[in-house]
């Protein structure tokens, strides 16, 4: 089974992405790179599952939405579903069956070490040997909140230095 993701909004608008295997989407170091400050480095993955496709958020800060609803677990996709990642919207074109090819030789089975062993719920521990983001509990604090304290300390040092220089040069 194959399908196409069509980018309807965002930096890659108009681009068509063939879904032949797992497709990791994010800002850098992934199969589909989108220059969007609202995306995480490894934001989400769209993968084939038996009978269709699913999307999973990889622990992104801004979340992944399917048809306007934020998802927090792998979510099954149907033809026409809209996936929103940051400023981009991708629409799944209705899946179509691949043409049947009759072969005299059977297909080779994949090597056992190529597939990661699934957990009890059937989700692989790792996707293609890469780190899969851990599931987050509660709301994750953003980068701005982690930088506020150091920024205020830096401004206090700059202000104190400016004041000390003003007093020094006023006396000389």
Output the keywords.
6-stranded antiparallel sheet; alpha+beta; 172 residues; elongated; 5-stranded mixed sheet
In whole angstroms, the N-to-C terminal distance is 81 Å
Quantity of strands, as a count:
11
Elements, N to C (H/E)? EEEEEEEEEEEH
Q: Which stretches are low in confidence, meaning pLDDT under 50 for 5 or more residues running? A: 97-101, 127-132
**Into which percent range does the helicity of residues fall?**
10-25%
Q: What structural category arises from helix and sheet content?
A: alpha+beta
The spatial strand order of the largest sheet comes to 2-1-11-10-7-8
Outline, from the CA principal axes? elongated
Instruction: From the alpha carbons, calculate the radius of gyration and give it in angstroms.
Output: 23 Å
Please tell me the overall pLDDT: 79
Sheet with the most strands, sense and barrel status: 6 strands, antiparallel
Total count of helical runs of at least 4 residues: 1
Describe the structure concisely for a colleague.
By secondary structure, the chain is α+β, with helices and mostly antiparallel strands. The protein has one helix and eleven strands; from the N terminus they run E-E-E-E-E-E-E-E-E-E-E-H. The chain is 17% helix and 27% strand.
Notes on the structure:
It is a single chain. The chain is of the alpha+beta class and 172 residues long. It has 1 helix and 11 strands, in the order βββββββββββα. The strands form 2 sheets. The chain has a 6-stranded antiparallel beta sheet, with no helix packed on it. A 5-stranded mixed beta sheet has the order 4-3-5-6-9, with no helix packed on it. A hairpin with a 2-residue loop joins β7 (64-66) and β8. The longest helix has 29 residues, at 143-171. The radius of gyration is 23 Å and the shape is elongated. The model is unreliable at 97-101 and 127-132 (pLDDT under 50).
